[in-house]
Structures are given as structure tokens and as C-alpha cells.
Write a structure and sequence with these properties.
Blueprint: H1 14-29, E1 34-40, E2 45-52, E3 78-81, H2 84-95, H3 100-117, H4 119-122, E4 125-128
Helix pairs in contact: 2-3
């Protein structure tokens, strides 16, 4: 999903929903190739259109992947429960401590998104992510 977000401030919007459904899920569901413009986090803009052949299996991972509009295309919706501070530390360890402010704001936005989309309750599989490194 990081490739599809429009930066930090405009990530979980109707534009993301349209991109996921119209450019990825609907074509894949029909067995067609699909494409999207990958977001460049360093230059803060979308790049050129990238196209892909229809896969036999498609996995969408990240915040927004399990929203209501995607569910008619999915076989499974996997939810990973994780303490917010554990998740934050994992991201900061991976991507750098300089992102702490953005990540704390992101966590508020993702929580609001999950609540409005009822993501956790609609998951077909739930995993406790606090034990994974």
C-alpha cells in the first residue's frame, strides 16, 4: 500500500479507494493486466505508470487494503493485532527515528480509518502480531 498512498497527508482518501478498486482489483478480478503510478516518498510525487500482468494470486498489504470497497474482491482479510507502541518502534527501527512525528499522526489516522471501515471485525483471520519480530 505504501506505493499507492499520496504522501502522509492525503493517504487514506477516496483517491486511494479509486486507485485500488479501479486500477488494480477490478482489472485483476477480470483477469486483465493492471497498472498504477507508484508514489515516490523522497520526491513527494507519483512516478510513471507501471503495468503488470494479471497475477494468479494478489496480496494487498497495509492500511487501506481491507477497506469496504475491496472486500467483494477478497477471499481472505487478515488482521494483525499489535500494540501501537510496538508497531511504532518497529517502523522507527526499520525506517529511522526521524519519522516519529509523522508516524504518530499516521497511527491516529489509521485508527480512524480502521474504525470507519470496520476492518478488524470483518477480518476472516486474526493474528497476534506482538510476538513477531
Amino acid at each position: 500500500m505504501d506505493d499507492l498512498y499520496n504522501g502522509w497527508d492525503d493517504a487514506l482518501t477516496s483517491q486511494l479507494t479509486r486507485t485500488i478498486t479501479n486500477q488494480i482489483l477490478e482489472p485483476v478480478f477480470q483477469g486483465k493486466s493492471f497498472g498504477y503510478r507508484k508514489y515516490d516518498w523522497l520526491n513527494k510525487r507519483f512516478g510513471d505508470l507501471q503495468t503488470y500482468s494479471a497475477p494468479a494470486l494478489l496480496i494487498l498489504e497495509g492500511v487501506g487494503a481491507g477497506q469496504k470497497s475491496t472486500r467483494k474482491y477478497t477471499d481472505e482479510l487478515i488482521w494483525i493485532d499489535i500494540d501501537m507502541e510496538v508497531g511504532l518502534q518497529r517502523v522507527l527501527n526499520r525506517d529511522g527515528g526521524h519519522l516519529e512525528t509523522e508516524m504518530r499522526i499516521w497511527q491516529i489516522r489509521e485508527q480512524e480509518h480502521f474504525e470507519s471501515e470496520n476492518t478488524r471485525d470483518c477480518a476472516t483471520i486474526r493474528v497476534d502480531g506482538n510476538f513477531f519480530i
